[in-house]
């Protein structure tokens, strides 16, 4: 199991939290690949902490659905299944659409300008082909809208779903330029809907912004399964 040696984590964290955050990051960005076996002895050595907090972190990751633990046998990163795509994207799309609808009613001019700045940066990153920074900028855009909506329930319920969505993005959408260009158009349409305080349009565009990539990810996974047979 390849473990990077040059990772960085925040200081003054509990050992369990340090292990949890780092393992979650490695799973999401594909460092630990779907189906890969996780050895707590190697993780312990790589992170410089004892095996007990490693095991506690693994239990939390199992609850989130990132790993599968078989006591006395093995622990592995969960596989990414095409069926999961159709279960995770729609509820997140609904939550994000609700956030856009609420944000459109209360958004301020300076917040719209901030979204424009983010979208300009997003476009520049697309042109440069910097996939990972493009994904991060896209998440920043959506998180800002959720913050603007000022509904903690939307934020809380969205957060765990977004972790799994991020995993799909890193593994399957790294080089799909068409997907991000369509997303850019939708970002601009969202900004216009916010400027018009058009809640209905904002909701519809936001929902499309999530359901369109859902179809792309599903097709990618279907193709991946076909190649493995």
Query: Secondary-structure element order, as H and E?
Result: HHHEEHHHHHH
Number of strands: 2
Provide the gyration radius in Å.
Answer: 19 Å
What would you call the structural class? mainly alpha
Count of DSSP-assigned helices: 9
- CATH C-level of the largest domain: Mainly Alpha
Structure description:
The chain has 229 residues and is mostly helical. The protein folds into 2 domains: 15-77, Arc Repressor Mutant, subunit A, CATH 1.10.10.10; 82-228, Four Helix Bundle (Hemerythrin (Met), subunit A) (Up-down Bundle). Helices cover 74% and strands 3% of the residues. It has 9 helices and 2 strands; from the N terminus they run H-H-H-E-E-H-H-H-H-H-H. It has helices spanning 15-28, 40-47, 51-64, 82-106, 109-128, 131-149, 152-172, 177-195, 199-228; strands at 67-70, 74-77. Helix 4 (82-106) runs antiparallel to helix 9. The protein is elongated. The model has no long low-confidence stretch (mean pLDDT 87).
Sum up the structure in keywords.
Arc Repressor Mutant, subunit A, mainly alpha, elongated, Four Helix Bundle (Hemerythrin (Met), subunit A), 9 helices, 229 residues, two-stranded antiparallel ribbon, 74% helix
Compose a concise summary of this entry.
By secondary structure, the chain is mainly α.
């Amino acid at each position: 199991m390849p473990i990077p040696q040059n990772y960085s984590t925040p200081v003054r964290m509990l050992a369990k939290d340090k292990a949890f955050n780092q393992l979650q990051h490695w799973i999401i960005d594909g460092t630990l690949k779907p189906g890969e076996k996780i050895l707590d002895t190697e993780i312990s050595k790589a992170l410089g902490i004892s095996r007990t907090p490693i095991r506690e972190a693994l239990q939390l990751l199992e609850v989130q659905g990132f790993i599968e633990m078989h006591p006395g046998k093995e622990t592995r990163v969960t596989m990414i299944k095409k069926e999961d795509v159709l279960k995770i994207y729609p509820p997140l799309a609904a939550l994000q659409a609700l956030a856009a609808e609420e944000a459109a009613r209360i958004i301020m001019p300076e917040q719209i300008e901030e979204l424009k700045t983010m979208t300009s940066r997003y476009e520049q990153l697309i042109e440069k082909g910097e996939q990972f920074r493009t994904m991060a900028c896209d998440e920043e855009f959506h998180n800002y809208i959720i913050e603007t909506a000022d509904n903690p329930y939307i934020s809380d319920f969205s957060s765990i779903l977004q972790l799994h969505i991020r995993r799909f993005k890193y593994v399957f959408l790294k080089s799909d330029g068409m997907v991000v260009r369509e997303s850019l158009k939708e970002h601009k349409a969202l900004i216009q809907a916010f400027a018009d305080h058009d809640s209905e349009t904002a909701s519809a565009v936001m929902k499309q912004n999530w359901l369109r990539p859902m179809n792309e990810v599903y097709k990618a996974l279907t193709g991946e399964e076909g190649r493995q047979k």
